[in-house]
Specification:
Length: 339
């Protein structure tokens, strides 16, 4: 598809001027707001010739970032930037089709749930029925319900009581029995060796003392138990995608401000090292299928930003919800506690 065909597809019914030179006209903003609407056509023309070069550079450069400890840039000011209170303020959006947390259903779950199901059923040789599973940082129950549907006896723990209230209502509507409790990952309200499986997803990158969370996982999991997780890698490309595009840039923002702090992202080798220290053996790490056209993802973010598509439609457009070898952005894996 040529650049001109792409632009025509972006704005149905639009056709270029009759002369060969494409002229970009700024449309008058019809709303009462004094802020003018960004010119999407100008944006597309500006970045279309260079997107491949930029993303190739990011992919190569992301592997060159220093392997120093994650805490190297974490000062008090940096830590205070992250806004974990958002889960209380937007607790009613967990199961909506427009809030940022609904992206977990339609982008994250299609990527991680089949992987976890395969790991637990096949490689872990674990029969879910009757097995005890703890979901740390369960929020509104987006992942806890998936585990319950597999047959596990699920307990979810989260510091946001408002999110837990939303989780209880939704689980009841689906006829699922899930034990939701208030608590934090660094001080779990459970006895030693209580669970066969522990999951911790979309959590570790929000916590400064995440190594303490791993220590708590090691305490409450049974010998031979399986720990499944996902988090975000600390690379240049993850900074561009999760911070610049998804969070900071108003044109493509799909997350609220300060949802993530890049310095708190975790490299796989850092997480594996902490798991090893607490008696876990890491068996596998998976990322995503290498992305196709990054411009397609950017424009999907723009559509979601403007409310033109739902979270489910966004997930289909992005097309990155397939497990694969690319761990430059998200990654997931599992580890087994020594018997």
């Amino acid at each position: 598809m040529s650049a001109l065909e792409f632009i025509r597809c972006r704005k149905p019914g639009w056709s270029p001027p009759s002369d060969t030179k494409i002229r970009i006209r700024r449309k008058a903003h019809t709303s009462s707001s004094a802020e003018s609407r960004p010119n999407e056509t100008r944006f597309i023309l500006a970045i279309f010739p260079v997107w491949k070069r930029v993303f190739l550079w990011l992919s190569v450069s992301s592997g060159k970032e220093s392997g120093n400890e994650r805490t190297r840039n974490l000062d008090t000011a940096t830590l205070s930037c992250i806004d974990n209170g958002i889960y209380d303020r937007q607790c009613d959006l967990w199961w909506s089709d427009t809030g940022f947390s609904s992206l977990l259903q339609h982008v994250s779950n299609p990527w991680r749930v089949p992987y976890f199901q395969r790991v637990l059923a096949l490689e872990g040789n674990l029969e879910p029925k009757g097995k005890l599973l703890l979901d740390i940082g369960c929020g509104g129950g987006v992942l806890a319900e998936e585990f319950a549907a597999m047959g596990f006896r699920v307990t979810g723990v989260d510091p946001s009581e408002k999110s837990l209230a939303a989780a209880r209502v939704h689980a009841s509507e689906r006829g699922l029995s899930i034990d939701y409790r208030t608590g934090s990952g660094d001080l779990l309200p459970f006895g030693n060796e209580s669970f066969d499986v522990v999951s911790c997803c979309d959590v570790l990158e929000h916590i400064h003392n995440w190594d303490v969370v791993i220590a708590e996982v090691a305490r409450v999991i049974k010998p031979g138990g399986i720990f499944v997780y996902d988090t975000i890698n600390r690379t240049l490309i993850s900074k561009v995608l999760f911070i610049t595009l998804a969070q900071d840039w108003s044109f493509t923002r799909i997350f609220p401000p300060n949802l993530h702090v890049w310095e708190m992202f975790i490299k796989p080798e850092e997480l594996s090292g902490v798991l090893d220290r607490h008696g876990f053996r890491t068996f596998d790490i998976q990322g995503t299928k290498p992305p196709g056209n990054p411009l397609k993802m950017v424009m999907a973010m723009r559509k979601y930003n403007r409310g033109r598509i739902t979270a489910a439609e966004f997930g289909k457009l992005v097309g990155g919800s397939i497990a694969g070898p690319n761990i430059d952005v998200n990654y997931m894996g599992y580890a087994i506690q020594s018997a």
